[in-house]
């Protein structure tokens, strides 16, 4: 088969175009995201480092928040202790358990942008205030601080966070003031 140099260039350009188009993160006309997403209960590994992924999906492991995707979804890696002590590396996209009672505004709802800004700042300041438990994101302090700031609530709260939520609501903190119907 005799292919001219001009034809070779055209073939290479066509193949490159097909490959690049096929590898795009989103279909034409849709919004692309810069990070992988996961459905609740199914963490998504972002690298080939299986140790962190395996341990994070089977037990409890200390984590560092690398990126906040939504107030309920995060890219995490092993915290400093796990990196040093257990030689773990890698990243994982995890979410707060789907059956969690913690309620945050949905994307597009009143207060979503403010909540996302709060969460992003929170984990910029406290990146290791997290862990992964059986593949789900967890943080004892984050939930309490999010409720205290008025960016989340727990309906019919009779648990340990009842007083924190009542104080935020009484003080009209965060979304308790700016979003009518928040917590209703």
Automatic annotation (TrEMBL):
<protein>
    <recommendedName>
        <fullName>TNase-like domain-containing protein</fullName>
    </recommendedName>
</protein>
<feature type="signal peptide">
    <location>
        <begin position="1"/>
        <end position="26"/>
    </location>
</feature>
<feature type="compositionally biased region" description="Polar residues">
    <location>
        <begin position="31"/>
        <end position="47"/>
    </location>
</feature>
<keyword id="KW-0732">Signal</keyword>
<feature type="region of interest" description="Disordered">
    <location>
        <begin position="30"/>
        <end position="54"/>
    </location>
</feature>
């Amino acid at each position: 088969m005799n292919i001219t140099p001009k034809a070779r260039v055209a073939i290479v350009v066509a193949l490159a175009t097909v490959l690049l188009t096929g590898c795009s993160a989103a279909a034409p006309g849709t919004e692309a995201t810069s990070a992988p997403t996961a459905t609740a209960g199914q963490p998504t590994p972002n690298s080939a480092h299986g140790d962190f992924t395996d341990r994070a999906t089977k037990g409890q492991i200390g984590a560092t928040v690398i990126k906040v995707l939504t107030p309920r979804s995060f890219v995490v890696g092993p915290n400093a202790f796990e990196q040093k002590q257990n030689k773990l590396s890698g990243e994982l996209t995890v979410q707060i358990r789907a059956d969690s009672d913690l309620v945050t505004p949905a994307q597009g709802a009143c207060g979503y942008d403010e909540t996302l800004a709060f969460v992003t700042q929170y984990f910029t300041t406290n990146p290791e205030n997290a862990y992964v438990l059986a593949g789900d994101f967890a943080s004892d302090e984050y939930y309490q601080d999010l409720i205290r700031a008025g960016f989340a609530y727990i309906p019919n709260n009779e648990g340990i966070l009842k007083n924190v939520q009542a104080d935020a609501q009484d003080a009209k903190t965060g979304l308790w003031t700016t979003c009518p119907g928040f917590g209703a």
